[in-house]
Write a structure and sequence with these properties.
The chain has 7 helices and 11 strands. It is α+β, with helices and mostly antiparallel strands.
């Protein structure tokens, strides 16, 4: 991997009078995005069969109305980890108080997901720490640039392979629609996931249950999710268009 192109993206957060004695630098966001693509895309394509869509998102193609999505879960401006989940072509999201489908590469949306910060799979327990599964855009030593970038890439690759068992396990545990509903029920037991995914966990569950003909009060529960009448009617219209092809 050639690192020369990343030099123009180095920025210093030190005051000018301290820059000479402190050679640590951060990567500008544009340079970080480029590095994430260059490091992760070949690994993700090889191990998970997903392609890079830009904007720190990887996904495969739709199959049976859904596709897998892997993206950056950003904890701070300077670092993050992965989140992994599903995007459905018949489940809308909220946009300007209206229900809007998210079916294209540009509009892709993760309807429900898991990340390293809280999950039910303990595959990696005892083998690594959560910190090992994160990656950041800082701590590039401009005085030892090539070696520092090489070490950063190694850390990125290690973070991916530490996380990979969790990703694979999640998709194995959600490979059917019924299993996905079960997983959502598990996530709903977590105050953490209820906080960061909000009503989308409930919304996704209701749409999935209707698609597989589970649940007797799906429409009633959907109505109760919304306070705004126009928003409610917009989602009910999409709800009535759920495909009838589930087998």
């Amino acid at each position: 991997m050639e690192f020369e192109k990343y030099k123009k993206y180095l920025i210093s957060t030190w005051l000018p009078e301290y820059e000479a004695e402190h050679t640590e630098r951060d990567l500008m966001v544009e340079g970080w995005n480029m590095l994430l693509d260059e490091v992760f895309s070949p690994l993700i394509a090889k191990e998970l069969g997903m392609r890079y869509l830009g904007n720190r998102i990887w996904a495969d193609d739709y199959c049976n109305h859904r596709r897998r999505v892997l993206s950056l879960f950003q904890q701070t401006d300077l670092g993050g980890s992965f989140k992994w989940g599903w995007n459905y072509d018949f489940i809308p999201k909220m946009s300007a108080k209206k229900a809007v489908y998210v079916r294209t590469d540009k509009s892709i949306f993760t309807h429900f997901f898991e990340n390293i910060w809280e999950n039910n799979n303990k595959i990696v327990e005892g083998k690594c720490q959560k910190a090992d599964m994160t990656f950041n855009r800082c701590y590039i030593d401009s005085a030892d640039f090539e070696n520092s970038m090489r070490q950063r890439v190694k850390a990125y690759e290690a973070a991916f392979y530490y996380t990979l068992p969790l990703i694979r396990s999640f998709y194995e545990e959600t490979k059917t629609y019924e299993q996905s509903i079960k997983m959502i029920n598990t996530l709903l037991e977590s105050s953490y996931y209820r906080l960061i995914q909000g009503n989308y966990l409930y919304l996704t569950k209701i749409f999935l249950q209707q698609y597989v003909s589970l649940g007797e009060e799906n429409e009633k529960e959907l109505r109760e999710l919304f306070v705004n009448d126009n928003t409610r009617e917009s989602f009910l219209k999409k709800f009535a268009q759920i495909p009838k092809d589930y087998r």
